[in-house]
Specification:
alpha/beta; 3-stranded parallel sheet; two-stranded parallel sheet; 5 strands; about 15% strand
Length: about 200
């Protein structure tokens, strides 16, 4: 019944299903999986897709986006007439985002946490790509930024502003998210005023 359907999978990550950049090794620890659990999940996924790929006569585990949503990308890509597109690009086209960005003086984007996953096609990097194309300054506001990846993020943003202005627990940060992001926007505006004087 699916053979006549065109299936477009919109994904914000381009991780494959398996391997060092795959679903279990990248997303497993984030969801609480221990190193031993990650290896077990990886082995089980590989065994499962040995069967699935043979049944459908289609290899998908290596495709970009196959590791999205814990491997749901691969489950959908195995279907006939299925293809994967950047979720950001799909939504950006629908919103005509490039035309809305190109004539601005500055663009603010953000994410809860900027980390290595952010480098795999997430929204802030997509926004940054459009801004760089039009020489529009772009600032990222985030709740946290992973230590050690500043040099990898630096080419994408003119500045990164951490939303938290004081130490707090993760629970407090979630409760105060609106205030924290709003205050971070004010701080960005204040230093822009100083720069543009």
């Amino acid at each position: 019944r699916c053979s006549d359907l065109e299936i477009i999978i919109a994904s914000d990550v381009d991780n494959p299903l398996l391997g060092t950049e795959g679903a279990t090794r990248i997303f497993g620890p984030q969801k609480g999986a221990s190193p031993a659990m990650v290896e077990e999940l990886e082995s089980n996924l590989a065994s499962f897709y040995d069967v699935i790929e043979k049944a459908f006569n289609r290899r998908v585990r290596h495709l970009p986006g196959a590791g999205a949503a814990g491997g749901i990308g691969a489950a959908l890509l195995i279907m006939p007439n299925a293809s994967q597109r950047s979720g950001f690009e799909l939504i950006a086209e629908h919103l005509d985002l490039e035309n809305k960005i190109k004539d601005n003086d500055i663009v603010l984007t953000g994410e809860g946490r900027l980390d290595r996953q952010s480098l795999f096609g997430k929204v802030p990097l997509g926004v940054s790509g459009i801004c760089r194309k039009h020489d529009t300054p772009v600032v990222a506001i985030c709740g946290a930024c992973e230590q050690g990846i500043e040099s990898e993020l630096a080419p994408h943003f003119d500045a990164i502003e951490i939303a938290l202005s004081k130490p707090m627990t993760e629970k407090e940060a979630f409760v105060m998210a609106t205030t924290n992001v709003s205050d971070a926007g004010v701080r960005v505006g204040q230093w822009l005023k100083l720069i543009l004087r």
